[in-house]
Amino acid sequence: MIGKDTSLTPEERQYLADTIETLETEVFVDGLGSDHFGALDDNEESQADWAEYVRRMGEADLTGIAVPESHGGPGGSFVETVLAEQAIGYAGTIVHACQVSLSQHIGQTMYQHGDEHIHEAYLRPILDGEVVVSQAYTEPSSGTDLPSIGTTAEQAGDEWILNGEKRFIDFAQYGDFYFLPARTSGDDGDREGISLFVVDADTDGIDIRDDMSDWHGFRGTGAAWMAFENVHVPDANLVGEAGGAWPYMNQELNLEHLTVARYCLGASQKALEVAADYTENREVNDRPISDYQAVNHEVAEMATKLDAAYMLNTRAARVLDEDGLSAGRMESAMAKWYGNDLAHEMADDCIQIMGGIATTDNYPIERTQRDVRAGRFLGGASEVMKSITQHYAYKTLTSDEFNPAYVGNELDEVPWRDAKASPPADDD
Ligand SMILES: Cc1cc2nc3c(=O)[nH]c(=O)nc-3n(C[C@H](O)[C@H](O)[C@H](O)COP(=O)(O)OP(=O)(O)OC[C@H]3O[C@@H](n4cnc5c(N)ncnc54)[C@H](O)[C@@H]3O)c2cc1C
């Protein structure tokens, strides 16, 4: 936030400031500091690095923030969750924020729908920072269109046998387990019949078909295209009801929309700060570039839109805190598309006002631009978020009192024009 954030309580503002300080002094130091961010980008991160990172995050109470203390969590709020994600995007990198985001929304799904085995064997280790989490939702035949997943799980005694493929999976090579949906009944495209499983990474039959780590952004996560061939999963690792996972996934995505947008905005805020400093110190024609109105108005627009995006995001998180994870679908969708489109626009505009040097790794801007790009479709494409927004917005905006017969026949009877011609009597 560039201005004073009155959408947050004083305690929440303090939480954000304290979290940034913790990250800068206790997490992104000693081998995992900013000197290490380049190694991430070169795909030189290791299992040990990620294990150490999640250990520090667990110790700092930043994993699974909204899981109650009764289940070993920090007992925080969804507002605190998005503030922490902003702080990680700002102080670390997008991929650091992504790993912790997985702990927030997968942690919530495990807490809300998992049984004691899921809580003890998987949720607690997430909260204690003992495991690297991987979410394997996307498939070759189904990305945005999740009900079309082709991975199947067939029950055989007290096990399920999994077959299928997943792709673009972050932490595929470093994760301790995969949290994934599979079809257990019904037909392709049905929302009924999808089940969620936790699959230990060392289970036989899981293969990396293609190492995708060398992609545009999000480097350092060990991303992959995976194959699951006759993978045996114990019945105890089913999360919630068999075939009933669609509502759980929607709730999870409702929170993921906010965390993904928020950490991308945090990273773009850092880019904006670097760009503002640079343009004040770089001279062109004996004047700092920041003297040029075309440049400083760009900064003004970015600062204004960033504050708006943060407030939209906080508002949606507060709806989840007040009404639960099934509520606020429109508010969450608004925050997602606006926040992720803006984060990308800002990173690009920062490059524009800095010029060529911003496209090199002398500054962190080009990496941010690559990293935030995927946010526009990751965890919910902007187009889909706008479809959700319009669905609910139309319900609020339209009225039964509007007579459809007016449309096209406005010369016969127009209520607004008639009201203007004879204004109501003034009672005063
Ligand atoms: C860096 C990165 C990290 C990722 N990490 C993970 C991960 O850890 N786990 C995981 O499961 N997946 C991950 N993904 C995959 C990501 O979630 C998918 O790329 C995303 O869901 C979109 O799916 P898709 O690529 O198959 O595109 P498609 O579903 O084919 O969609 C392509 C485009 O079509 C348009 N479109 C699609 N549907 C609609 C619609 N209903 N209305 C209007 N327009 C539409 C949108 O423009 C969309 O971007 C990652 C991807 C990237 C690039």
Structure notes:
This protein has 428 residues and is of the alpha+beta class. It folds into 3 domains: 10-132, Acyl-CoA dehydrogenase/oxidase, N-terminal domain (Butyryl-Coa Dehydrogenase, subunit A, domain 1, Orthogonal Bundle); 135-239, Butyryl-CoA Dehydrogenase, subunit A, domain 2, CATH 2.40.110.10; 246-396, Up-down Bundle (Butyryl-CoA Dehydrogenase, subunit A, domain 3). It has 12 helices and 10 strands. It has helices spanning 10-27, 34-41, 47-59, 78-91, 94-113, 116-127, 246-281, 293-323, 329-354, 365-373, 382-397, 415-421, and strands at 133-135, 152-156, 159-169, 177-183, 194-200, 206-211, 224-234, 238-239, 283-284, 287-288. The strands form 3 sheets. Strands 1-4-5-8 form a 4-stranded mixed β-sheet, with helices on one face. It starts with 9 loop residues before the first helix and ends in a 7-residue tail after the last helix. The chain binds flavin-adenine dinucleotide. Flavin-adenine dinucleotide is lined by residues 135-138, 143-145, 168-170, 217-218, 374, 377-378, 381, 383-384, 387.
Mean pLDDT: 96
Classify the helix fraction into a percent range: 40-55%
**CATH fold-level name of the largest domain:** Butyryl-CoA Dehydrogenase, subunit A, domain 3
Q: Can you list the strand order of the major beta sheet?
A: 1-4-5-8
- Overall geometry: globular
Q: Outline the biggest β-sheet.
A: 4 strands, mixed
Compute the separation of the termini in Å.
45 Å
Q: How large a portion of the residues is in β-strands, by DSSP E? A: 5-15%
